[in-house]
Amino acid sequence: MIGWPLGHSISPRFQQPAFDALGLPVTYGALPVAPADLEGFITGLREAVDGAPPWLGVNVTIPHKEAVSHLVDDVTDEARLIGAVNTVICEGRRLIGHNTDAHGFMQGLRDVGVDPTRMPALVIGAGGAARAVAVALLRAGVVELAIANRSPERAESLCWQLQAAFPSARLKPLPLDAGVLRVRLLPAVLLVNTTVLGMAMGAAPGESPVPDDAIGDRHVVYDLVYNPARTPLLHAAAAAGATCIEGLTMLVHQGAASFERWTGQVPPIDVMMDAARRALGLAPARPTAPSTLDRA
Ligand SMILES: NC(=O)c1ccc[n+]([C@@H]2O[C@H](COP(=O)([O-])OP(=O)(O)OC[C@H]3O[C@@H](n4cnc5c(N)ncnc54)[C@H](OP(=O)(O)O)[C@@H]3O)[C@@H](O)[C@H]2O)c1
Question: Which helix (H) or strand (E) holds 155?
Answer without folding.
Answer: helix 152-165
